[in-house]
Amino acid sequence: MNVLIIEDEKLLQLELIKLLENYKDFEVVKCIQTVSEGVSWLKEHGDKLDLIFMDIELSDGISFEIFDSVEVKTPIIFLTAYSEYAIRAFKVNSIDYLLKPISSEELEKAIEKFSASEKKKEIDTAIFQDIFAKHSPQKTQRLLIQTGDNYSYITVDEIAYFVAEDKYTTIVSFDGKRSLLDKSLNQLETILPPEKFYRPTRNVIVNIEAIVKASKYFNSRLKLSLKPQHDFEIIISRAKVKSFLDWMGISD
């Protein structure tokens, strides 16, 4: 069976591919990360698919936007981090889903349900729009990281700061450990709790608990010192000083 994965986080793609290796009849023919790529690929290859695993939130929009541009008749199992209230709505409307993080047990149940189904269900985009409008996903409280061939989660409370480096982002945790993440700082800004994390410069996002001090710097700027120690300067521009102080709860 030909399987398509639509998921914008590379590590989650790899995690799902690894889990699907246990099902010999399933072949992942393509992994897609964006709405636009999904529309383009499905228009040409959609009739050759047997099953789609589809993340709800993609880097350039919500996945149901794909249905506005291309007819999708292939059965879909949605991948979601939505709240329990949204999950209830999924169940009521018989929408197949897997809750992140994906477990082998839940994947097995979903595949058994798919295999037992004799009738393909039509996609009702109006139902999706209603659910998404009422139940927006909560801010991320943990992130998936990869160490060798193993996957693990790190909670955002363990993270001191993120540093943009080439195509990847480096996570520095409070215990000094470093790991790689395949999300950009722009993506992280949209999913991290804003009361805990702030982006003082283009290359760094910091946890409020990691700030040791903010010192006055020339030209009305600020210089940050973080823990664990770092070998680069973090200089907040004059234009961002007020925003930073407001976030810190400090009156200037």
From TrEMBL:
Keywords assigned: Phosphoprotein
4-aspartylphosphate modification, residue list: D55
Domain annotation HTH LytTR-type: ranges: 143-250
Organism domain of life: Bacteria
Cross-referenced InterPro entries: CheY-like_superfamily, LytR-like, LytTR_DNA-bd_dom, Sig_transdc_resp-reg_receiver
Protein name: LytTR family two component transcriptional regulator
A molecular function (GO) term: DNA binding
Residues annotated as domain Response regulatory: 2-115
The keyword Iron is assigned to this record: no
UniProt keyword annotation of Nucleus present: no
